[in-house]
Hints:
By secondary structure, the protein is of the alpha/beta class. Helix content is 25%, strand content 28%. The strands form four sheets. A seven-stranded mixed sheet has the order 10-9-8-11-12-14-13, sandwiched between helices. Strand 3 and strand 4 (47-51) form a beta hairpin. The radius of gyration is 22 Å and the shape is globular. The N and C termini lie far apart (57 Å). The mean pLDDT is 89.
Amino acid sequence: MLAELLELAPSGVEEVSLGDDVVEYAVYGPPGELPALPDLKAAAGGALVEISTSEIAEDWSERWREFHRPLVLGRRLTVRPPWEPPGDTELDIVIDPGQAFGTGAHATTRLCLELLLELAGDGCDRGPFVDVGCGSGVLAIVAAALGWAPVIALDIERESVDATLGNASANGAKLEARRFDLRRDPVPEASLVAANVLAPQLLGWAHSGRGRWPEMLIVSGILNGEADRIADAFAVNGLGERERRTRGEWAALLLARR
């Protein structure tokens, strides 16, 4: 079915899984570009195929912006997309998410930001900071604004590195960003590392023995049910759990060298 659709729309087809045995393929195009098809049901091999055509709003390519709202953490921090007005908090950070990144509102990023603000308020050492899995650079940029230096942002995706550099420039944040693979590259030495990545990557890092462990480590991107296992894996390396925060199904851990 996909092969047939790609002949009709060589520029691409959207594929969405709607359940264990239902897949939706969507083809977009202006009137007259796509073949006119009535709403119908048809058999294709052993599958039943439903075909429907509908019009979508002309501003469909801009509606993704509706999903990106400012994140406000008390009086301390606002993280907002560039089309939203400035916040009235101590720090106002502008993050352009593009169509592939967030602005910090996801629970895992928000938990990391809360811990960063707490550490800054406690007057901890603001030496070197490393953001592992930087995405659009939210954590690295906020860390730089809070006084950590030097700041290094790392991600396996080139698009993430480019997005981080662009957002850093927009906020006047001084940092370095480069490509990095946590599965094989040692994390640069730092007083604080934030790693907002998935549990398998964190476990692989904890078991690898690569590099020197930071004084403190924030890990997120993990589900509540995975937190104990992650904490135990890093405890073997001398990083004990100092604080745990949860939001919905997600958790973030603040680990400190014993």
